Amino acid sequence: xxxxxxxxxxxxxxxxxxxxxxxxxxxxxxxxxxxxxxxxxxxxxxxxxxxxxxxxxxxxxxxxxxxxxxxxxxxxxxxxxxxxxxxxxxxxxxxxxxxxxxxxxxxxxxxxxxxxxxxxxxxxxxxxxxxxxxxxxxxxxxxxxxxxxxxxxxxxxxxxxxxxxxxxxxxxxxxxxxxxxxxxxxxxxxxxxxxxxxxxxxxxxxxxxxxxxxxxxxxxxxxxxxxxxxxxxxxxxxxxxxxxxxxxxxxxxxxxxxxxxxxxxxxxxxxxxxxxx
Length: 277
Prior knowledge:
44% of the residues lie in helices and 23% in strands. It is built from ten helices and ten strands. The protein has helices at 3-34, 50-60, 65-70, 90-100, 102-105, 138-153, 174-190, 203-209, 228-236, 239-246, and strands at residues 47-48, 76-85, 112-118, 121-129, 157-159, 162-164, 171-172, 214-223, 252-259, 267-276. α1 packs parallel to α4 (90-100), α6 packs parallel to α9 and α7 crosses α8 (203-209). The model is unreliable at 1-21 (pLDDT under 50).
């Protein structure tokens, strides 16, 4: 056979191998659609994701799924893995998936799928991707956070072991928004997650720098939360953050987030509380 013929044979084999991968995703989606083991079907298909396929490839090298995720650029809010070894027959693979991973396949929270196949092994990952809020939505999200915080302040609440009575609503402060943005930008730029800035500053320093003359200030930070509801609920579930939200010592609030897809958490939030002089 000529060199040209050998190249053609290799190319043809590669082309023939491609549909086998696609059929696995189609098969998983058919199980998802029809349901299994008394689990009802899910109408929403799992979208094929190159990023998740890269995760599956990394996972195939060994270790746990979280380790594989950390070695890739894929960012998700939840994920699960499925592994089948010992067969190259698609029907047998799908049968094993149906019998052993029905809960995962029919979980409506998952929206994307990726996979990697090597020999008689198949590594499949499903996930919910992290969807970061856009910068243009900052004003709307600030108002959502304020509304959620004031709803929490309007009722008695227990933060850890401390009981708090209802307190007056906070007002949104444009100046404190700037102080919050400065710290969120600093954390995103320098991959920090702490109250001390990269320059050693504290919340009071940052508030003063943007022109806020304060009698009292405090700060909450968060990372990885993609919505106003998630970030506020996370703060309310944490005694210290919850105490800041429920404190009668503050009358104003600033809020800002910075999305940084290349960072591990993907997004950084800062909430600043203040009582002006």
